Amino acid sequence: MRLQRIEAVRFGELENGCLSDLSRGLTVVLGPNESGKSTFTALTRHVLYGYPYAHAKERGYLPASGSRAARLVFADDVGTWAIERVDGPKRGPYKVTALDGAERPGLLEEIVGGVSEQTFRVVFGFGLDELAQIESAESADVVARLYAAGTGLEVNPLDVRKHVEALASELYAPRASKPQVNALAAGIKGLKDRIRLLEAEATSYATEQGRLRELTEQLSPLKQQRDELEVGVRTLARDFQRAQDTVEQLSAARDAASALDQAIEESKRSVELIDVDERVLAAGPALAAVLDDTSGFKARLDALAAAEASAAEVDRSISGLPAMPETVTDSPEDRAAVERWRDQLADARRESDGAQRAAQQAEARAEQSALVEQEQPAAIRAPRPVVQGALAVAVGLAAVLGGVLMSQWIAVGLGVLVLIGGGVTLLRPGTPGSPPTSLSAETARLRADALASRQIATEADALLTRLTAEWGEWLEQRGLGAWGEDPAAVRELLVAAQDRRRLAATRNAHLATAARERSGAEEWIVRLVDVVRTFDEAAGQLPTLTGALELAARSRATLERAQDARSERSQLLGRIEALDREKRSVSAKADGARQVLIEIAQRRSFELEDLLPELESAVNRAEEDLTEIRDRYETLAEQAAQLRGQLDDEGRDDQMARARQELEGLRVEASAAADRYTVLALAVRLLDRARERFERERQPEVVRTAARVFSAMTGGRYADVRVPLDDTGVSVVGADGAVRPSEQLSRGTAEQLYLALRVGLIGSLGEMGRSLPILMDDVVVNFDPERRAGAASAVRELANARQVIFFTCHPETAALLEQQVPGAKLVTLDRCTLR
Fold it and tell me: What is the CA angle 701-703-708, rounded to 5?
C-alpha cells in the first residue's frame, strides 16, 4: 500500500491543489517558499488523524472560501482507495471510497496501524520545527515505546520500573500515613493500648453475677413463651388478613362475572342486528378491481370530451374557409405549375405591352418624317443609300445583342428585321440618271422600322393570346375555370384547399380519438354492470357515461357498508370470545378464592359462614396474652441488663479476645506487606542495574542504526550515539572518545543527529505503520554540502524500505537527492498552486 495522490480541495491557502503520481520510493517535491509544501505535510496528518480542535494551539489551516476538505489516495496491487475528511464534529468525519477494487471501510485503521498522531508528527511527518521534538518531554514516551519495540520488547522497561516503584510506594513511604505498612504499624500500636486498658479495668462482682444468672434462668422460658405467642399472633393475623382479602376477591369476581354476562348478552344482540350482505362481499374482489379503474374511466371521459371539443373547434375553422367544389385538389406539382404560369403570363403580357408601345412609337416617327419631307425641296430629299444602310445595320446589330443579353426575344426579332433592311439598302446600287423617289431613304427606313415593330407587336400579342388559352385549358382540366384566370387567386384557392384537407385530417384524428375513448369507457361500464348485477337486480340496463359514475359511487358505498358490517360483526364476535375467556378466568379465580377460605376454616376448625368474625376474635385474644407475657419479659430483661452493665465481664473478655485476634492479624498482614515491599524495592534496584548494563554493553538495533547513519553524515567525526532508556537526554561519542550531550552540539549537527535517530527508529519498526508515508519538509537546510550529501544517503536508505516524500525549496538539494537515490521522482510546485 502506498500513498498515490494528495488532494487539497479546500485546505488553508490551497484550493484544488494536488500532488499526484507519487513514487513508491522517494518523491522530491521542489517548490519556492509559500508554494504549499508545509501545507501538504499538515494536510496528510490531518486527513489521517483529524483536523485540530478550534482551541488547539497548532494551526488549523482554515480556508477563506469555506470549510476544510481534503483527501489522500492510496493504492496497492489490487485496487485504489480515497480517504476523504471534511469539517465537522469530532475533528471532522471521514469516509473511504473505493476508486478501483473492493470496498475497504477499515482502510484508515489498517494504514495507521497503531501509530499515534504524536508518533506520526515526531517520526513520520516532520520539518525543522519537529526535528528537535524527538528529545522533548512531550515526545519522550513516543520515542521510548518505539525504542522498546526496536529491542524486541512488548513493553517499555521504563514503564515497568515506574509501575513497580508505584506499587512499592503504595506499601511503604517514610514519614507517611497512607501507605499500607505505615497504616498497619499505627493499627498495631492502637490495639496494644486498648488491651492494656481492658486488663486494668477487670474486677470481680460475685453477688451481682449470681443474681444475673438467676434472672437469665427466668428469662429463658418467658422468652420461649413470648416467641411462640408472637408466632401464633402473626399466623392468626395473616390468616385473618388473607381471609379478608379472599372474601373481597370473591365478591369482586362475582360482580365481574355478572358484568361479563351482561356484556356478552348485549354483544350477542348487537351481532343479531347486523345484516351482512354476503353477495356483495362475494363480488367484492371483482368490484374492487373494476372500481380501481374508475380514475382511468374518468380520464377517458375527459379525453373524450377534449377530443370532441377539439373536433368541433376544427369544424368551426373549416366553416370559416371559402366554399369550393369537392373536385378541387391540391398538390405540390399544381402549386409549382401555378407559379410557372404566373411568371410566363406576366412575361408575355409585359413583352406584348412593350412591343405595342414600340410599334406605336415607330409608326409615329415614320409619319412625322414623311410630313417633314413633303414640306422640303426635292434636292434636299435626294437619297443617300450608303449612309442610311450602314446606320440601319448598326441599329439592328445593337437590337439583337441587347435582346440576347436581356432575354427579350421580341427585341431580338425586331433587330433582325432592321438588320436585313439595312443590308438590302447597302447592296442595292443607285441607277444613274434615275429620277428621285417621292420619299427619302430615312423615311423609308422609319417606315420599315414601324412595319417591323408592328410585326413584333403582333407576334407578342399572339404569344400572349396562346398562353392565356393554354392557361385556361389547364384550369378547366383541374376544375378551376370558374375561379377566374388570375394565377394569384388560383394560388390562394389551392392554399385554402390545402388548409381544408389538413383541418379535415385533424378533425378526423380527434373523432377517432373520441371513438376510441368512448369504446374504452363503454367497456368499463359493461364490466361494472356485469359485477353489480350479481348482487343488485335493479342494475339491468347499461347506464350513460355520466350515469356510470353514479352507479360506481353507489356500488362503492354498498361494498364499503358490507365490509364495515362484516368488520363490525367480526369485532363483536371477537369481543364475545374475549369476554367468554375473561369470564372463565374470573370464575376460576372465584373458585380459587372459595377454596382458600375452605382451607383456612378447616385448619382453624371454624365454620365457613362465620370465618371472619371467629378469626378476628381469636386474633384479639392472642394479642392480649402476648402483651401480658411481653410485659413480664421486658421487666426481667431490664433488671438483667442493669446488672450486666455493671459487671460486663463477659463483654470485656469478648472485647479483649477480639482485640488480641485483630492484633495478630495485623501483625501477619504487616509482615506480608513488608516482605512484598522488600521484593518491589529490590526489583526497582535490579531494573536500574539491568538498564545501566544494557545501555553500557548492548545498545538496541535502533541506536546502532542511528549511530551508523550519524557517523556517515558527519564524515566519521562522531563514532557512536547513546540513548538512555530514561528521558535523561541523548549523547554522542566523538572519534576521540569524548562524550557530548546533544544540547552542546551545533544546530546543524543536532539536526543531523535527530535525522539519524529517525532513520534508526523507522528502520526498527518492521510492519508497524508500513503503509504510512514519511514526509520531510526541508530538514537539511542547515547542513553543509558534505553533510547534506550524507543526509541524502540516509534518505536513500530510508526510501529503499519506505515511501518518502521530501519537500524542499532548494534546487541543489533536489538535484542531490535525484543523483543519490536511483529512481527518485521530481515534482515541482509554484505559487500558482495557491489561490
Answer: 95
Predicted confidence at residue 382, as pLDDT, reads: 43
Instruction: Tell me the C-alpha distance between 221 and 225, whole Å.
Output: 6
Contact (CB, 8 A) for 800 and 28: no
Q: Which segments of the chain have a pLDDT < 50?
A: 137, 146, 149-150, 154, 201-205, 378-384, 429-438, 649-650, 698, 832-835
Distance, C-alpha 703 to centroid of its chain: 50
Tell me how far apart the alpha carbons of residues 217 and 229 are, in angstroms, rounded to a whole number: 20
Residue 156, sorted as left (phi over 0), alpha (psi -120 to 50) or beta, turns out to be: beta
Cβ atoms of residues 407 and 477 within 8 Å: no
Instruction: Count the helix, strand and coil residues of the chain and give each as a percent rounded to the nearest 5.
Output: 70, 10, 25
Q: Name the nearest CA neighbour of 480 among 468, 467, 493.
A: 493
Cα torsion through 402, 403, 408, 409, rounded to 10? 180
186-196 b/e (C-beta count within 10 Å ≥ 16 → b)? ebbeebeebbe
* 270-291: burial string, b at 16+ Cβ within 10 Å, e else: ebeeeebbeebbebbeebeebb
Instruction: Report CA-CA distances (Å) from 480 to 326, 349, 468, 489, 621.
Output: 11, 22, 14, 10, 139
Alpha-carbon radius of gyration of the chain:
64
* pLDDT for 434: 43
* Contact criterion met (CB below 8 Å) for 40 and 832: no
Q: Is the Cβ–Cβ distance between 403 and 415 less than 8 Å?
A: yes
Q: Apex CA 133: angle with CA 130 and CA 135, to 5°?
A: 150
**CB 748, CB 784: distance < 8 Å:** yes
Backbone angles phi, psi at 637, to 5 degrees: -65, -35
- Here the cell at position 60 is 488549523
Residues 740, 132: Cα–Cα separation, whole Å: 17
Do 508 and 382 meet the contact criterion of CB atoms below 8 Å apart? no
d(CA 13, CA 835): 6
Helix H or strand E segment including 311: helix 294-319
Retrieve residue 456's grid coordinates.
Answer: 413584333
Alpha carbons within 13 angstroms on the beta-carbon side of residue 243 total: 26
**Biggest CA-to-CA distance, the chain:** 220
User: Which of 427, 429, 422 is closest to 446 using CA atoms?
Assistant: 422
How high is the pLDDT of residue 656? 60
On whether the CB atoms of residues 93 and 113 are closer than 8 A, the answer is no
Residues 6 or more apart whose CB falls under 8 angstroms from that of 753 comprise 706, 710, 721, 730, 732, 742, 745
Q: Which runs of E-coded beta strand occur in 517-588?
A: none
* Residue 601 and residue 187 in contact, taking contact as beta carbons nearer than 8 Å: no
473 vs 468, 482, 527, CA distance in Å?
Answer: 9, 12, 62
- Give the cell for residue 452: 417591323
CA-based nearest residue to 20, from 29, 31, 11: 29
For 407-486, where are the alpha helices, taking DSSP H only? 409-427, 441-477
3-state secondary structure of 27: strand
Query: Rounded CA gap, 215 and 84, in Å?
Result: 90
What the block records as the C-alpha cell of 636 is: 426481667
What gap in Å lies between CA 817 and CA 810, rounded to an integer?
11
Q: Three-state SS for 322?
A: coil
Sorted by sequence, the CB contacts under 8 Å of residue 357 that are 6+ apart come out as none
Q: How far is Cα 576 from Cα 570, in angstroms, rounded to an integer?
A: 10
Helix (H) or strand (E) holding 84: strand 80-86
Q: Which three cell numbers stand for residue 499?
A: 388548409
The alpha carbon of 718 is separated from its chain's Cα centroid by a whole number of angstroms, namely 58
For residue 431, the model assigns a pLDDT of: 42
Helix (H) or strand (E) holding 646, with range, is: helix 611-647
- 327, three cell numbers: 373536385
Nearest to 158, CA basis, from 724, 756, 798, 602: 724
Choose among 388, 370, 398, 455: nearest CA to 426. 388
